[in-house]
Design brief:
Length: 307
């Protein structure tokens, strides 16, 4: 059995595994896809102390750093069930392969995924104009025209943020009203370089084969299609934590995020969590790494108090 078993091999899981291994305790990582979301990223310019890198490169570096230590890396395996420690028995992580891994402490770092529009052109132009993270990719569109899809809090926050960087922002909302908080809506309405279009259903991402050149939306009040010329599209219709398999076992927030305290402890003793899968605000690489380190130290502290 493991002393610490990490589920997830993204920035949070990698940091957790390294911090555990450095304590000299038996550490394992099980991951569906080692590297996590960074594998789907191109330019990364906010990984502090590294001016510029690329996602696949960072993904390889994460795995290499973990493998510098005596860590059991179990890649391409998906966890489907968690049984927390009980009555002196170890915690169990059940894999889809049928295997059961046992550990004294478990750190969950299964991350999240952005909800997509599922329209033609979106997948083709991902990282070539279609973006999901304004904190990450906003500066790449300096002085350009962008759209934000989604009029909830994240969409309106993204539009306000981007309006300070890009030349023009068009915010498109499917419904006939925005769902964001009133203060955010008021702030948005006060900005000179923002256009808000409601009752708009995005239909297609247009491009020239290299990058995004526009988008087509249907005006749901007239049923007519309209085209906007632009260089970037930020999709802000939800971030889905990879926690479906945990909902009967742990306390999750209304959005499905694992609730954690300041040490990364979840609602079950000995079960810790870190990164995009948790309630920690702002989903970023450096934040996920810090949270992974913290949850791992939290788990170590738990282990020395529960011999
Ligand atoms: P993830 O990276 O999502 O890793 C989750 C891990 O868990 C993966 O290994 C996954 O395979 C595994 N997993 C999931 N479910 C299971 C399961 N049931 N069983 C086993 N394993 C499982 N952030 C920045 O700071 N800067 C950027 O420039 C930036 N750009 C981005 C661009 C894109 C296109 C995307 C999608 C994200 C970007 N981000 C960026 C956000 C950043 O990638 C995330 O905040 C970060 O990767 C979160 O790390 P994590 O370890 O919590 O989760």
């Amino acid at each position: 059995p493991f002393e610490v078993l990490v589920v997830g091999g993204g920035p949070a899981g990698s940091a957790a595994a390294i911090y555990a291994a450095r304590k000299g305790i038996r550490t394992g990582v099980v991951a569906e896809r080692f590297g996590g979301q960074v594998l789907d990223t191109l330019a990364i310019e906010n990984f502090i102390s590294v001016s510029r890198t690329e996602g696949p490169k960072l993904g390889v570096a994460l795995e290499q750093h973990v493998k510098d230590y005596d860590v059991d890396v179990i890649n391409l395996q998906r966890a489907k069930k968690l049984v927390p420690a009980q009555d002196g028995r170890l915690a169990e992580v059940h894999l889809e392969s049928g295997a059961v891994l046992k550990s004294r402490a478990v750190i969950l770092a299964t991350g999240a995924r952005w909800r997509e529009m599922n329209v033609p052109g979106e997948a083709e132009y991902k990282n070539r104009g279609v973006a999901f993270c304004p904190h990450c990719d906003g500066p790449l569109f300096k002085g350009k025209r962008v759209a934000v899809i989604g009029g909830g809090n994240s969409g309106v926050e993204a539009a306000i943020d981007l309006a300070g960087i890009v030349s023009h922002v068009t915010l498109l909302e499917f419904a006939d009203t925005l769902r964001a908080d009133a203060v955010l809506q008021a702030k948005l309405a006060s900005l000179p370089n923002v256009t808000i279009i409601k009752s708009a259903q995005t239909r297609e991402v247009l491009g020239d084969g290299q990058k995004v050149t526009g988008l087509v939306y249907r005006d749901r009040t007239t049923d007519r299609d309209r085209t906007i010329e632009l260089e970037g599209i930020f999709v802000q219709i939800g971030l889905l934590p990879n926690t479906d398999w945990l909902k009967d076992t742990l306390t999750l927030s209304a959005r499905g995020e694992i609730e954690v305290d300041a040490r990364g402890q979840t609602s079950a003793p000995g079960i810790f969590a870190a990164g995009d899968a948790t309630t920690v605000p702002f989903k970023q690489i450096v934040i996920a790494m810090g949270e992974g380190a913290k949850a791992s130290l939290g788990a170590f502290d738990y282990l020395i108090r529960h011999p």
